[in-house]
Amino acid sequence: MKQSKLFIPTLRDVPAEAEVKSHQLLLRAGYIRQIASGVYTYLPLAKKVLHKIEAIIREELEAIGSMELLMPSLQPAELWQESGRWYSYGPDLMRLKDRHERDFALGPTHEEVITSLIRNEVKSYKRLPLSLYQIQTKFRDEKRPRFGLLRGREFIMKDAYSFHANKESLDETYKDMYRAYTNIFSRCKLDFRAVLADSGAIGGKDTQEFMVLSEIGEDTIAYSDSSDYAANIEMAEVKTVYTKPDEAEKPLEKIPTPGQRTIAQIADFLKADPEKCLKTLVLKADDEYVIVLVRGDHDVNEVKVKHLLGSETIEMADPEAIKSIMGADPGSLGPVGAPEQIRILADHAVRYVVNGICGANENDFHYVNANPERDYRVDLYGDLRNIQEGDPSPDGKGTIRFARGIEVGHIFKLGTKYSEAMHAAFLDENGREQVMLMGCYGIGVSRTLTAVCEQHNDDKGLVWPVNLAPFDVHLVPVNMKDAQQSALAESLHAELEKQFTVLMDDRNERPGVKFADSDLIGLPVRVTVGKKAAEGIVEVKIRKTGEVLEVKKEDLAETISNILAQLAS
Amino acid sequence: MKQSKLFIPTLRDVPAEAEVKSHQLLLRAGYIRQIASGVYTYLPLAKKVLHKIEAIIREELEAIGSMELLMPSLQPAELWQESGRWYSYGPDLMRLKDRHERDFALGPTHEEVITSLIRNEVKSYKRLPLSLYQIQTKFRDEKRPRFGLLRGREFIMKDAYSFHANKESLDETYKDMYRAYTNIFSRCKLDFRAVLADSGAIGGKDTQEFMVLSEIGEDTIAYSDSSDYAANIEMAEVKTVYTKPDEAEKPLEKIPTPGQRTIAQIADFLKADPEKCLKTLVLKADDEYVIVLVRGDHDVNEVKVKHLLGSETIEMADPEAIKSIMGADPGSLGPVGAPEQIRILADHAVRYVVNGICGANENDFHYVNANPERDYRVDLYGDLRNIQEGDPSPDGKGTIRFARGIEVGHIFKLGTKYSEAMHAAFLDENGREQVMLMGCYGIGVSRTLTAVCEQHNDDKGLVWPVNLAPFDVHLVPVNMKDAQQSALAESLHAELEKQFTVLMDDRNERPGVKFADSDLIGLPVRVTVGKKAAEGIVEVKIRKTGEVLEVKKEDLAETISNILAQLAS
Predict the structure, then answer these.
(1) Which CATH architecture has domain B253-382?
(2) Is B117 on the interface with A (CB under 8 A)?
(3) ipTM of predicted complex
(4) DSSP at A237
(5) Does the beta-carbon distance from B98 to A94 stay under 8 Å?
(6) Superfamily of domain B17-236+402-453
């Protein structure tokens, strides 16, 4: 393919709007352009990479018996009303009315559509299990689109759904998907971890996120330094064993703490360790207000509170509610003398805080030497805090470290959430009606492209893995006006295209421009046709290592073959 | 691929909502399902056919140097306001607001987005020409979605756009596209014609529609019985040579014609030939009302009237306006004594009507023996009627016949319509700013699938051309519980899959059900493994011809190879 015919609008300067490397390079190397906030055009080079990612996804999913279909983006509101998500999804769901004033959603995901399809067509256990997937443009009206393709409002997803007659069958497909996802992200040359994640309102632990390790990741992963344990920090169980300090209980005392509100301020003001302080929060779980205590150096984990209480929703109580319940503002709250009708929950660590410091439920006053049982009640202890670096790994092996991750995939046992709400039932072997079990499995395709760019680049540009590069070879004649160079380049182009995909830079540009563009675009191998063209000698440069070889034209194809094989391994 | 794992929900009965063959069969054979009016899910078999059509399109477009990209469906209203289409497109354009109340269109086509992209990136003649295409889901809120995928509200299109520095370059790409389209539809085994079409408001004749001949087509094509001339009837020039009948002019006479309004009624009432009657219409061209006369047996062609007048718009005058201008209602109108300030246009044929019959501009009265010049004025003669079967072909070769056609493709020289409105300009060789010339080129991908089904079926089901079939071979063991049959089928499945794509019906269904489903699904070759399995003999049935052969298992692969090659030729 001749570069003069291909649309690759490279940029010299780093665009001001791009904060992260992948976004900068995809813009600069002419892969993408923004049309509106969070809405992009994939230019020809990016489209070629997308095709390659999609081909890998298709291969791995077909290998585990998942079948491709294509559902519509326009989804009737009625289906979303059946599942209840029409009301719960919020402004992220893009909605529109057709010419007859009927409501539609623009699909961010397709649980409703596929459940409706399958409930209409499948009535017997004989037709189960079924596993179906699609690769499709999705819509989600993100409040803050950012990082280019990483968090867009229109993006490409692979979403798969499976339907089962029993739990064993769902387990099997879930495992197959785990394996397929591992293959897919490995073939995309991503450094990733499969992490345990929160399964939301459904409960259970059977959901995993595939996280690409990256500083720009929006999620924090807790992983073990000595095993393959990895989890979203919301999920990671704290197994720290606490001990009581060898210290006698002192008398409770109320002291003025004017203007001191945060743990840091109080600890500083009282010259105490933050571990001595109690962080007191008021949360609203469904309709119940509860007080939650964690140690001053810990953070409360709302998901864990929700799970402990078995509630559907959890949120911080608003300041007015807090004032009216506790008689003081946040920063001066504490369990001592808290209203009796409010339950007090505490993290395990709180039990071991001797002579603690807490708010007195009176603005600008704190208690010191507060001790559980003696000075305040705790109705329920539990694991209610986020894990921290240095905590023991929950699997008993090693110590927890943190990393940032980009979520590129998600596998999820839905159970009967949708099949129950939408009555997707079948007759089992005994002729009894049962609700189907479901799984869903997503991959952010455009996000995967971004994650690859984020992990594969250097200060000169992108460095594509062989599997995903838009072309294998960048053939660059230094001077197209030199008859010998252009003749050799043309003949090499024709020859190499039999075996590789080749981009030939046939533009009349200065060598510096051509080389800079070539590095930016990031194809695995560059073949430079320069002064030694007359001798039939060209220069081969490996983009990843920067290694340069002089190669006779007769040996070129084999050399490239070997380099690509080595890079791909 | 085992059929038990594939989702192919076949139906015994013809669904009530499906009027046409392709729609019925795509539903019955388990290829598609409707989600909302004009909105469909493509089930796995259809998705496989789409992949094949798309691959053919990609191959042919890449061969002429067009490059694939992918633009967003969400299009900011600002771009559509720049082109003016935000206001002119009407309710077919699906519109929505994002969470910040900004207006967006859901792309039915992408002229605005691509013009905006190119104007920002291309500033010099050196970067032109450019040809870019995408294959994408489009949205158009059709008033009356119908015929399944044929006229849907969400559908798959290939749309291409080209940008040029001069007319010659646009002409060349237009011709390349014509050739590519001809190859694409030929490879899809469609019986089609490229017809001249109206280019709408832009003028000029450089637009052609690719029409698949079919009774269910929504367009009428006029074609020559002795040449390759074909045109949309709106476009076909009438070159009929008229002669005056050998008849003396008689005196004009006004006669009562109570209740007689249509040409048929008048001709019958007066025992006259419809050719003697004048059809008189009042049209509104931009802001001017005009009278248009055609012969009673002819139909007025509004596009031709518009072109003759050089107006932007044309429409029938409303009844109130007619009454107030002419003093009578439609059915009693005529040129004799028409108001002087209104121009009278007439089709050439009118000049040759001697002693004609026309309305008297007084309800329930007509004139007989009306003659042009003597009794009424004509300000402008022209070709103002639709061509009819039996007229001479405009290319001078043969006679015109009519056929119905499904529009599957459209190539179009846009000229500067969008580049001017949106300021897509470049500097030419002399450093002068010029506006780019553009072309656009569409293919209805999902519509092509339907058109293929419409042309390739029989009373038992679909009959896929080899190029597009979801699988090459349908392997059908008659009885899966028969150990010899299932063993032979399994081994043939493994062997044939090395060379062909194979669907194996491993279901425990009755033979009648399996054969009926197989015919419905319509794969080119069926291999039946039945009673002679023990002898290593199977039956090969060619779906298209119904021909049946007994084949030894050793010869099976070669036999299938030969059949497929023959069918594909």
Answers:
(1) Alpha-Beta Complex (3.90)
(2) yes
(3) 0.88
(4) P
(5) yes
(6) Bira Bifunctional Protein; Domain 2 (3.30.930.10)
